[in-house]
């Protein structure tokens, strides 16, 4: 009987590797950096965010997207200090989309923040845009994980 090390030199390695799903818009993958559920699409859109922060203060700002996914966004030009878990309504054109803040990053030397949002709706057509699909590259994917 052959042991795990008795075959071609790459046999044990190839059995240990798990196949990676093909990465494209809408592909389901993990949530880590380089393993997002959806590819980020760089696009700057003017949006309004409204809601209440953790201290129950009103939030109402005109900001912009830096990139979007079918069910999320990274926003810039935010002056209100938000916290992870805050719920916001984002208005883009006539659409109102419910989001949850998943991360907040203060920008050095400014009073601005970037925030990452995750959609609260299960659907992936939040933006009403024809988002490109195909072989998009995730800017956060490392060359080792390509």
- The CATH architecture classification of one domain is Beta Barrel
Instruction: Please provide the ordered H/E string of secondary-structure elements.
Output: HEEEEEEE
Biggest sheet character: 6 strands, antiparallel, barrel
Total beta strand runs: 7
Structural class: mainly beta
Relative strand content: 35-45%
Rounded to the nearest angstrom, the radius of gyration is 20 Å
**CATH superfamily name of one domain?**
predicted glycosyltransferase like domains
Helix fraction bin: under 10%
> Can you identify the CATH class of one domain?
Mainly Beta
Q: How widely separated are the two ends?
A: 36 Å
Brief synopsis:
The chain has 146 residues and is mainly β.
Describe this structure in words.
There is one protein chain. Strands 2-3-4-7-6-5 form a six-stranded antiparallel beta barrel. The two termini are 36 Å apart. It is 4% helix and 36% strand. The protein is mainly β and 146 residues long. It is globular and about 35 Å long. Residues 7-33 and 134-143 have low confidence and may be disordered. The chain has one helix at residues 11-16, and strands at residues 41-42, 46-52, 58-69, 72-78, 87-92, 95-106, 113-119. It has a domain at 41-120: Thrombin, subunit H.
